[in-house]
Design goal:
Length: about 375
Amino acid sequence: MGPITSRLATMMTPKGWAALAAALLVFAVVLPVLNLAVPPGSPFHLPDFAVSLIGKYLCFAMLALALDLIWGFAGALSLGHGAFFALGGYCMGMYLMRQIGERGVYGHPTLPDFMVFLDWDELPWYWYGFDNFGFAMLMVMLVPGLLALIFGWLAFRSRISGVYFSIITQAMTFALMLAFFRNEMGFGGNNGLTDFKDILGFTIQSQQTRVGLMIASAVALALALLVCLFVVTSKLGRVLVAVRDAENRVRFLGYSVTHAKLLVFVLSAVLAGIAGALYVPQVGIINPGEFSPANSIEVAVWVAVGGRGTLLGPILGAVSVNAAESYFTGFAPDLWLFVLGGLFITVTLFLPQGILGLLRGLRDRLRGTARTPVAETAGHA
């Protein structure tokens, strides 16, 4: 091989991909910091909407990474990860709503506006504590994790898998969507939670706060990537891949398939909840529409496009698909759903391993090796 092909092949090893991911995440942190030092009139200055858009893409990338952990490595396609994402978002939204308004006698803010409009006399018990940031962040992880623990235990213990698992997770998120639409639930009904003002004492609409949220999203994605890398390269990761490829054989060997799936499902839900919590202050709203089953299906498309069973593929798929959506909805909004459908069909028929699989095939050709189409292993990060 020549020097150029040799360098490309080296870069596309798992270590090379990890280094590339770290460089991209560092760039995502450095870019907004430098943006603060550039005058607003400069062509190198990113407008506020672009900073928030990049931050939103990073949250979506973390959500896709969470889904890939349970689908790509454990073989369980969850079509309910939008529910965990939305629950984390609602926990953050409840904290942000508690920062609005004048403080009462005990230093706590008054009732949220929508509760006053609906003639609520007092704050519901499940809103207690959300005026504290630490408590709210604990709930961001605990609420989705607890739901995943209960739901996953019942499903995996009953050996529900394949398309049946996908259907019941989709039913779960649809049921939550219907519940959160009800005004008596105390979460704003159809309008949801919006009109946020402050976060940790900082004005949420200021440029510095937007940059800070984007940095927080990049750091969270980097940490999530490291956690997932640790899981998939451990003994648990090898067991998960074995469960994905031959579940009954793994069960006969004495491994607890239920516990392995349950652990990674709960971890995946927690990561999705954190992504949702970071997403809400950057978009300024959270409503029951985030529970829509269509959103969870779209997340699966991101993972499939990037390449499931990897760690960088879902990140690549989430960013590229959402960037394409922003582009197409800008000049031809009616065409986007057709483009998304065509993209999914193309990937299914011609790129079953996604964009990352295509790049790996290129790497193998550059190396001069012939790879057989075997299942990806957990060692391929």
